[in-house]
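Case study 2.
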Amino acid sequence: MATETVLKSPSRPLYRPVNRTAERIFFGSMAVLLCVVVFIGFSPTYFRAGMLRAPLPSPILHFHGAAFTLWMVLFLIQSALISARRVSWHRSLGTVAFCLPPIMIVLGVIAAIDALHRRVSIGPLDPAVSLSIPLLGIVCFTVLIYAAWRTRRRPDAHKRLILLATIGLVDAALGRFPWNRMGISPAGGAVAGLGMLVLLVVLYDLFALHRLHRSTIWAAPLTFAVGALAVPIGITPAWHHFAAFLDRSVGRFL
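Prediction:
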């Protein structure tokens, strides 16, 4: 009886070896860039206005602004700890930092509905359409931050998901850039800015791995799609009915 031999090809690593120095430079630089974008976008109404002393139209916005600012500070510190190779400090602080997203999510939803109830409009958009931008952004952040928590033991996936979740948050700052001075519509400028930030993550993967990381494959399109499609979703009759329901059932209590 003939003996059959099964030949197995040696398993290949899923990704090429990563240059750790380039990795630290990229993620650290992205943290700095996102903090700069947030500062520029919210500088006139929040940071240069005194932050907690800023004349915001609703008290909830002070809590909202403080929580989201703290997230950006923690994001920058965590990136700096990795760059300094203080991994144990990074993990210890990360345990505390992950207590913040649930608070941000609740405050983000309340602030968005409060703005709807006060009939706040973003540019030429009516309040119901304006609601779609922060509310859908919070949904995207929730999905990505939960995935980041699930992959906290896999640094390659974790850091990409945290970065893309934060890029999604920065979309609010991009919408407040002085695009009109550049001859660009605020909506077009915000989408273009978001697309460029997401593209940087994609290009880094192609440079460092010669392919897209599995987390980037689904999280990058999701982050961009939510930012780009929020307004088209917001102008639909179904969304207007949903916004009216939120205003009647929740907004009147804020």
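The longest helix spans residues 20-47.
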